[in-house]
Fold:
Amino acid sequence: MRPLRAYLLRLGGDAAVADDVLQETYIRYLGMEPAHRERFPERPLLFRIATNLMYDHFRRKSRDERAVRGLWPFRTDERPRPVEGGDVARAFATLTERERSLLWLAYVEEWRHDEMAPCLGVRPASVRVMLFRAKSALARVLRKRGLGPKEAS
Amino acid sequence: MKECERHGSTLAQARAGQADAHAAECDRCRDTLAVVDALAHLSADANRLPAPAADARVLFLRSRFVARLQGEQRRAERSERPLVFARVAALAVMAGVIVWTLLGGTTVEAPAGAASSAASLLYALSRLALWPLVVGTLAAVATARFLWVED
Ligand SMILES: [Zn+2]
Structure:
């Protein structure tokens, strides 16, 4: 429960969204046919459902934002959305959703590439390359913001 | 686009909070250190954030409750199926009997001079006691298909 919430929080940057998705994830999970549910280990399945729900949320949100921008005749400033957490959280939020998922599953959940692939809907062979890119992207942002690891310890 | 060959060992060190000479020299391994560091921080931070508006356990119990309701509803629908099926089948057979009776049944004599061949064919069909059964069976099959198609 807690690790999944942490993941959703970092994926979405917003506690309210994370909690909604968390609840919906459990509803979907427990609403599944028991036979189907028991065929997979619990944790990867929960993360997979949650990731899909979060991606749905992002898709819906960007569609709504596009629709609103279409109605608004003036140029609006793209203001970065508030992110809960400190500088590192804000740096992390500049990555794409997929990059965030990849890094979290690999470095926090410590999943293998073949475990991550179904959760993200990509081929296992792509995970390696995508993960490397995501890692470089985050390291670049961290460096640019002066948030690198403590120098020469 | 490939990870450093010492990525595994750097990763293990990063998780242990150490770094050897290679990790300090190598660009890719420095990235790894930075990323592991950042994610450890984010994870600890996310776990420290105030509990969700509704307590996680309550959320969990509530969703489990909803799921149980859904399961019960599904089970109830499923257990009602034979009843619905029997009802529709009985109605269909009854309708067949009524139509059969209206069309002449067995008690009525054949019309003396059946004007057209269609009328006499209809009459001949209505004479068959199988007729209501056929209608009933067809209706029952259609109902069964409708009721069980989801499984
Ligand atoms: Zn290296």
User: Anything to note?
Assistant: The interface with chain B takes residues 1-2, 5-7, 9-10, 15-16, 18-19, 22-23, 26-27, 29-31, 84-86, 88-89, 91-92, 103-104, 107-108, 128-129, 132-133, 135-136, 138-139, 142-143, 147-149, 152-153 of chain A (CB under 8 Å). Chain A has one domain: 2-144. Residues 42-71 of chain A form the longest helix (30 residues).
